[in-house]
Design goal:
Length: about 400
C-alpha cells in the first residue's frame, strides 16, 4: 500500500523507528540512519546476546541501514542531498536539536518543498515541557495510563514492555499514511511538519477519563484485574492454578454465565439487572465466580464456558502464543531472514490487505550495511566513501 514512498528514519531507540517500520511493513522504502559508531541505545536494549541485538533486528526490520554524522559539514550536505529524494523524514531528537545542526524546517523545505517531517517528542514542539527528555515510562505515567494499572495494594504499575513508545509509533505510522493520502489528493500542496507528542498519543487512548472526571467527579484508578466500568470482568484462578480472564458484561452473556456456573438466581436479583448495577455490586458476583473457578480444574472450565459461549481465555505467555492453533493457522508469527541467525520469529504484518503482493521480510540492518548502495545513488565513488569513513562522516 505504501510502495514508492521513501522514508528516512533519522531517529533512535523505539517510538519513531517503530513508526517507520510499520510503514516498511506496508511497502515503504525506509532507510535507517545511524551514527558511524552504531551507538543507538536500541542495540543494547534487551533482549540481546553477546553478539546480537535481537530487539534491533525485529524493530528495524525491512529497512536499509546507513551511517551518517550530520553534525559534520559534509555529513549535513549529504543529508540534504538525500532529502531531495525523500518523501518523509522521521526524527525524534529533542525540540530544537535539528535547528542547532543547521537542519531547521526552512532549510529542509528549501531542499525539498514537498517533504513531510514527522517529529516525535515526549511532549510536543511547543509548551513548557517541549525540551524535556523522556522515555516510555515517563509518557505512560504523565498521560494517566500507569495510574490505571496495578492494585490498591501494589500502587500504580508499569507493563514490562515500553508500551508507550509502541502506541506512539502506531500514531506515527498513521500520521505518515495520512500525510501521503493528503499529498496524493492534493499534490500541489507543499510539505509540512507533523508534531507528535508521545504523551498526547497515549492520552488519546483514554477517551472516557476526562469526561468521567468532569461530569461524574470520578477519578479512575488502579483496581487490579477487575474492570470498574463493566462487570463481571476479572481474572480468576482455577483449582489447578491457571489464571483465566473472563468477560461477561452484556446481559445475554451474563445470563449464559449464570446458568453455566450454577447461579441462575442472580438473574432475578435486581442488583444485577444492568451493567451499571453489576458494577456497583461486583464484589458479590466476583466472590461467586472466584469460588466456582477455585473448585474446577482448567480443563473443566474450558468445557463449561466453551459450551456456554462465554468469552474467556487462560492468560498466555509467549510459549502459549507460539503454540496456539489460531496463531499457527494465520501465521501470525512469521519468519524473517537474518544474516546472522538464518531467520528469526517476529509478529506478522498488521493489517492484512487483499490485492497486495507478499513481501520478503528481513531483519534490521547491520551498522552501515547499505552505505555503498545508498551513497552510490547520490553519486559518491568508492574512494569518496573510503575518505568519508576515515573522517568519521559515515
Amino acid at each position: 500500500m505504501l510502495q514508492g514512498i521513501k522514508i528516512l528514519d533519522f531517529s533512535t531507540v523505539l517510538a519513531a523507528p517503530f513508526a517507520a517500520t510499520l510503514c516498511a511493513d506496508l511497502g515503504a522504502q525506509v532507510t535507517k540512519i545511524e551514527l558511524p559508531d552504531g551507538s543507538d541505545a536500541l542495540r543494547g536494549l534487551a533482549p540481546t546476546t553477546p553478539e546480537h541485538a535481537l530487539y534491533w533486528k525485529v524493530v528495524n526490520r525491512n529497512k536499509q541501514g546507513i551511517t551518517l554524522d550530520v553534525r559534520q559539514s559534509e555529513g549535513r550536505d549529504l543529508f540534504l542531498k538525500a532529502i531531495t529524494r525523500t518523501d518523509v523524514l522521521v526524527e525524534n531528537f529533542r525540540t530544537g536539536t535539528l535547528d542547532k545542526w543547521g537542519l531547521d524546517l526552512k532549510t529542509l523545505h528549501e531542499a525539498n518543498p514537498h517533504l513531510v517531517v514527522l517529529r516525535i517528542t515526549g511532549f510536543g514542539q511547543t509548551g513548557p515541557y517541549a525540551k524535556r527528555p523522556g522515555f516510555a515510562r515517563i509518557f505512560e505515567a504523565m498521560s494517566g495510563l500507569t495510574n490505571l494499572i496495578g492494585t490498591p495494594e501494589s500502587g500504580p504499575q508499569h507493563p514490562n514492555l515500553p508500551i508507550g513508545d509502541l502506541i506512539t509509533g502506531v500514531f506515527g505510522a498513521f500520521s505518515i499514511a495520512s500525510a501521503m493520502a493528503s499529498l496524493r489528493a492534493r499534490p500541489e500542496q507543499g510539505g509540512f511538519e507533523i508534531d507528535l507528542s508521545a504523551t498526547e498519543a497515549i492520552f488519546r487512548l483514554l477517551d472516557p477519563l476526562a469526561v468521567e472526571h468532569e461530569v461524574l467527579g470520578y477519578t479512575r484508578s488502579h483496581v487490579g484485574n477487575r474492570a470498574d466500568y463493566t462487570a463481571p470482568s476479572n481474572m480468576y484462578r482455577s483449582k489447578d492454578h491457571i489464571w483465566v480472564t473472563l468477560v461477561a458484561s452484556s446481559n445475554p452473556i451474563f445470563s449464559r454465565l449464570c446458568h453455566a456456573i450454577g447461579h441462575a438466581e442472580w438473574l432475578s436479583d435486581p442488583r444485577f439487572e444492568t451493567n451499571p448495577g453489576r458494577c456497583r455490586h461486583v464484589q458479590v458476583i466476583d466472590e461467586g465466580i472466584s469460588q466456582w473457578f477455585a473448585s474446577h480444574d482448567f480443563i473443566e472450565i474450558e468445557h463449561v464456558l466453551g459450551q456456554a459461549d462465554v468469552p474467556y481465555t487462560k492468560v498466555f505467555n509467549i510459549k502459549d502464543v507460539l503454540a496456539d492453533p489460531q496463531v499457527q493457522h494465520r501465521q501470525s508469527v512469521m519468519r524473517i531472514a537474518d544474516a546472522d541467525l538464518g531467520s528469526i520469529p517476529a509478529p506478522c504484518v498488521v493489517p492484512r490487505m487483499s490485492g497486495t503482493s507478499e513481501m520478503t521480510h528481513r531483519s534490521g540492518p547491520a551498522v552501515g550495511e547499505h552505505n555503498a548502495d545508498f551513497f552510490g545513488q547520490l553519486g559518491l565513488s568508492s574512494s569518496d566513501l573510503a575518505r568519508l569513513k576515515e573522517q568519521g562522516v559515515i
